[in-house]
Design goal:
alpha/beta; 3 domains; 11 helices; elongated
Length: 401
């Protein structure tokens, strides 16, 4: 929904009704992830995408019908032997799309949610997409994490377990909850699981019993988890850093460039960075870790290839338990020298094994822009478990879990 929010909010503020289809679950090679949305405006305008073009026509028509009938619908789209190119996914995937009417009456919380997103405040929106009692379908609950909650915890939602998950010691107690799904039991279960999804920055459809029973079936709740953007910290104010910052911003990261040299670390040289910090890299990273601003989604790109900066920085970085990626630029000789220095500093082989160096995948990159693509490719592969091999040389599913 985030990508279509400006248009949705404009229609909402104008008092219009909008049909919105949202992917709540995918199976096999579905092209768009859960949370991807498509709007059909009051003038017939289509905004966004749920499948990259495969089923947009069918969702467009269904959205218009839903607005007219004022009843939400959960629709499954998959490959169709008879008419695959008309309404099916030619890639062989399956999508569950929840289609609803959005206006001031059905979603009065929308403007406040948009304000949370603009301010970077973590907020989850839970919507009942399927239930034996049709009166429950469409009910919504908004969950805002407690102030100071560590969204980098190891909370993992598991709607099939008897014990609810949490996102810190105050989960389910100090969080702010608006709305209700239909019962106190259901609200409590979904509230805790929504906090867990916020910790992961992951949207997902969860299954419960009709009254929120964790080991039951019948109710499906889709949880949009709008966590702050993941962070990319780029160390070294060089031309390669400017290209990496640009690609990182394109991928949706909040990008920080840090260097101890004020003549190089300027906003003018890094227009795509969200912030440029003049500080010793190791000192800045240690302070960010101490302040709780480093989490399991954070990626660190060390590009200075200068021992006086790199070694103290990597001493800090490689001892942080939960980061998504740590990569360091340099030749193989530089890498070997760096490892020797880090061993002398007391780092263990297990800690050193977390370092990706030389940074990036082997694409034969030469220019800063090509190198930035190489770095981004490794980060994506690390995130989704990709091999980095050409897809033509692999078998099985294309899209990672």
């Amino acid at each position: 929904m985030r990508e279509v929010l400006p248009e949705l909010l404009a229609w909402w503020r104008a008092g219009e009704s909008v049909g919105m289809g949202t992917v709540i679950a995918t199976f096999r090679s579905a092209p768009r992830p859960p949370g991807a949305s498509m709007l059909v405006g009051p003038d017939g305008t289509a905004v966004g995408s749920v499948s990259g073009g495969c089923v947009e026509g069918a969702v467009y028509e269904l959205a218009q019908e839903v607005v007219e009938r004022r009843e939400p619908v959960l629709q499954r789209y998959g490959i169709s032997d008879d008419d695959a190119f008309a309404v099916g996914l030619t890639c062989g995937g399956i999508l569950d799309v929840y289609v609803e009417t959005v206006n001031r009456e059905t979603w009065p919380e929308l403007e406040a949610i948009a304000a949370d997103l603009d301010a970077g405040h973590p907020v989850a929106v839970a919507t009942v997409a399927e239930h034996p009692d049709p009166a429950w379908v469409g009910r919504r609950m908004v969950v805002r994490a407690p102030a100071g909650t560590d969204l980098g915890s190891d909370a993992v939602p598991d709607a099939g377990s008897d014990v609810g998950v949490t996102a810190g010691p105050t989960a389910g107690q100090a969080c702010q909850v608006e709305g209700s799904l239909g019962s106190a039991r259901a609200d409590a279960a979904v509230r805790d699981d929504a906090l867990g999804l916020l910790a992961l920055g992951h949207s997902e459809a969860l299954t419960y019993g009709p009254d929120g029973e964790r080991r039951g079936e019948g109710m499906r709740v889709f949880v949009w988890a709008f966590a702050p953007k993941p962070r990319m910290l780029v160390f070294g104010a060089i031309d390669f850093a400017a290209a990496v910052a640009r690609v990182g911003s394109f991928l949706g990261y909040h990008v920080t460039v840090c260097d101890a040299r004020p003549v190089f670390a300027t906003n003018t040289r890094f227009p795509h960075a969200d912030e440029v910090v003049v500080d010793w890299p190791h000192r800045y990273l240690a302070a960010e870790q101490e302040a709780g601003r480093i989490d399991p989604r954070t990626v660190l790109c060390v590009l200075t290839h200068d021992p006086k900066f790199d070694v103290p920085l990597l001493e800090v970085a490689l001892r942080i338990d939960d980061v998504a990626y740590i990569g360091a630029m340099g030749s193989r000789r530089t890498h070997d020298d760096r490892l020797d220095r880090l061993r002398e500093a007391g780092l263990t082989e297990a800690e050193l094994a977390r370092l990706s160096s030389p940074i990036g995948l082997d694409l034969g990159a030469r220019t800063p822009e090509e190198t930035a693509i190489s770095v981004a490719a490794e980060i994506i592969a690390r995130r989704w478990g990709g091999s980095g091999e050409p897809l033509a040389a692999t078998e099985g599913r294309i899209h990672g879990e």
